[in-house]
Amino acid sequence: MHLYKYEKIWLLLGGGTLVIFLFLVGIQAFAMGMAPPSHQETIDPNKVDHTAPFNKPGLKQIGENEYELVMVAQAFAYSPGNIEIPKGATVHFIVTSKDVVHGFQIAGTNVNMMITPGHISRITHTFSETGSFLVLCNEYCGVGHQAMGTTIEVM
Ligand code: CUA
Predict the structure, then answer these.
(1) How far apart are CA 112 and CA 2, in angstroms?
(2) Ligand 1 pocket, 137 CB below 6 A?
(3) Which of 27, 72, 79, 86 counts the most CB atoms within 10 A of its CB?
(4) Prediction pTM value
(5) Ligand 1 pocket, 139 CB below 6 A?
(6) How far is the CA of 62 from the centre of ligand 1 (A)?
(7) Rounded to 5 degrees, what angle do the CA atoms 90, 119, 41 make?
(8) Burial 77-109 (b: 16+ CB within 10 A, else e)
(9) Superfamily assignment of 45-154 in CATH?
(10) pLDDT at site 35
(11) How many CB atoms lie under 10 A from the CB of residue 133?
(12) What's the distance, CA 51 to chain centroid?
């Protein structure tokens, strides 16, 4: 089989890119231990109201300008909603669902979680600027999905 010069160059480029990519992914996975979050924190979705910390949802101060926010997602709302936090606060979100899969995205930030019934999702964010942040559900969860959202006011 005859290969033209440019075919050889493009084959080398394509193959080389693939080899480099797989090599880097291998280093990340095996040498640096990078992997998707694998913690499995489970909860009985039928007993959310009676299981700590979800028996007392809400904002709790745990340090100087550091808070824990326990939230329950269910069709089609977050409880509690309309949270107010001070500027600069670091918030540890702890969220679960009572019914189906919901999303938990805070627009304009990197906070974006899938909220799965039976599991507890955690993420931490520091709100360094004041403003009104929209929390929205980005997983289709039923007829009221598009109305599922709330706000976080950073004062
Ligand atoms: Cu909850 Cu979409």
Answers:
(1) 51
(2) yes
(3) 72
(4) 0.76
(5) yes
(6) 29
(7) 75
(8) bbeeeebebeeebbbbbbbbbbebebbbbbeee
(9) Cupredoxins -  blue copper proteins (2.60.40.420)
(10) 76
(11) 20
(12) 22
Q: Is the CB of 145 under 6 A from ligand 1?
A: yes
Ligand 1 pocket, residue 135 CB under 6 Å: no
Show the tokens assigned to 18.
């693939």
Please give the biggest Cα pair distance in the chain: 73
Domain positions in the chain: 1-35, 45-154
Q: Which residue has the tokens 């694998």?
A: 38
Structure tokens at 154: 């950073």
Q: What is the DSSP letter of 119?
A: B
Q: What is the DSSP letter of 64?
A: T
Q: Which amino acid is at 144?
A: G
Contact present, 52 and 70 (Cβ < 8 Å): no
Q: What is the pLDDT of residue 54?
A: 94
Task: Report the nearest-CA residue for atom 1 of ligand 1.
Answer: 102
